Amino acid sequence: MSWLRPEVVSALHRGREVIAGGATVALGLWLAAHGGWLLVPAGLCLAALGLWFAVMAWRRMRFDQGPDGPGVVEINEGQVGYLGPGAGGFVSLADLVELRLLTLRGRRVWRLKQADGQALLIPVDAAGADRLFDAFASLPGMDSSALVAALQSAPPQGGRALSLAAETRLIWARGGRGMTVS
Question: Which of the listed CATH numbers 3.40.1000, 1.10.1610, 2.30.29, 3.30.70 matches domain 72-173?
Answer without folding.
Answer: 2.30.29
